[in-house]
Amino acid sequence: MRTGWVGVLALVTVFAALLAAGGASAQSPVTGVLSGPTALAPGGSGTFYLNVSGGPASEASGNVSIKAYITGADLAGGQPLQASSYTSQTNGTGPFIINVTAPQKEQVITVVVEINSTAGGRTESTKVSRGVTVITPITLTATFRNDGGSAALNVPVRFFVDGKVAGATNITRIDPGTTGTATFAYLPVGLAPGAHTVRAEADLNRNGVIEPDKGEVAVVDVFYKRDFELTWPYAVLIMGITVSVAYLVIRARRRRR
Q1: Whether residue 145 sits in one domain with residue 128
Q2: Roughly how many angstroms between the first and final C-alpha of the chain, as a whole number?
Q3: Cα–Cα distance measured from residue 202 to residue 84, given in angstroms and rounded to the nearest whole number
Q4: What is the mean pLDDT of residues 174-188?
């Protein structure tokens, strides 16, 4: 009988050990997800967010530490560099916020983050990265004239390149008899050499439909990209559009009152 009890106890001990091993293996490896802009202007800045999960720090009283830096062919003017990396440490909750300044030269750089997850004397490490194109922007402009008798306020303007949204802005005020200009810095990443169309829309009610009878207008122009890998023919290319339609804007504003 005693031998039988010893056998049962041994089986219970092994079962308990297997349960403990199963609980330890249930912890997922430390991983990180790095998000942020895919393109920056030379010398421009961008904010990146890192979310970390798994690893020892996912347990009680754990912590996560990171070291972030950029790599590339010519990092003059860029930050943070590997020799002066950005470092931070938390208990693993919430995202890390990493501010990056692009180098002055056009190129493709990489934002690299080294992650350490620690708890109870155990540490796991991993590394994540994100490629960023540094490229000179094109300045798109659209100028609208107010031929009406009162000011046009907060005129929304959206820019499209080859039918895709490039960006949006507002003209705060256009006084009677004057013009107002909307400006947007467009980063032309992945744009093939050749002709490209630019469309500027004044969509007053922001419903995505241009309605001329409500004072809304769209204008189209063309620019050209030369056969360079990253470099554009001019540091800044200005596309100017002048449209004398703001009196319709005034009429539309009055109609909605």
Answers
A1: no
A2: 96
A3: 46
A4: 86
